[in-house]
Amino acid sequence: MDATAPASPADAADRFARPAAARPFGVYVHFPYCAHRCPYCDFAVTTAPVPGGGRYARAVLAELSLRAAPFDAFRLVSIYLGGGTPSRWAVEEIAEVLSAIRARFGAAALAEVTIEANPESCDRTRLAAWRAAGVNRVSIGVQSFDPGVLAQLGRRHDPGTAARAVRTAAEELGNASVKAAQAIKAACPSDYSLTPTGRLAAMEQRLQAVRLAIEESKQ
Length: 219
Hints:
- With 219 residues, the chain is of the alpha/beta class.
- The chain has one domain (2-218): Alpha-Beta Barrel (TIM Barrel).
- The chain has helices at 9-17, 55-67, 91-105, 124-133, 147-152, 159-173, 189-203; strands at 2-4, 24-31, 75-83, 112-117, 137-143, 176-182, 206-211.
- The two termini are 32 Å apart.
């Protein structure tokens, strides 16, 4: 778990100029487990089996109890479940963690609760379960709508699955965003600007650009 404040310099200066009770902050909860590791990924992830019996949720709740006190006077405005692949996390454990965060910090100002998901995970049953757990936004790891780029990135979905996932998530939650990779080696510069945004314009969803950095070990 990581508690973060707004990133822009103006927001940062403003939040420290106001009383602590008015300072907004967000809670990030990391779920590191993935079914496989994409070749471009350098995040803290593992392909080890997801721990059973609620063990990971208990570890997150234990960390919450240790780290929450300095933020008790702040105003919780967002929760973000990232990874890894948090869409692989048991929904009852997600609900337990979200409930504990709300109980600790209050939810009067809580505007957005986001979960990251792969397109193949965004079926209506799962989306409805996340909504019931308190999630109101899904960030979908599309990366590209180009099949060649998807193969290059080691993604397991195809463009059709990605497009359906975005539409279904928007219908079920009313709030979806799409992660698209930028600066992909050997991809045409126009691929990024034309392929995802053309699809997204029709779907009226937000775009999150993820710029890839080329490293010797990943070429």
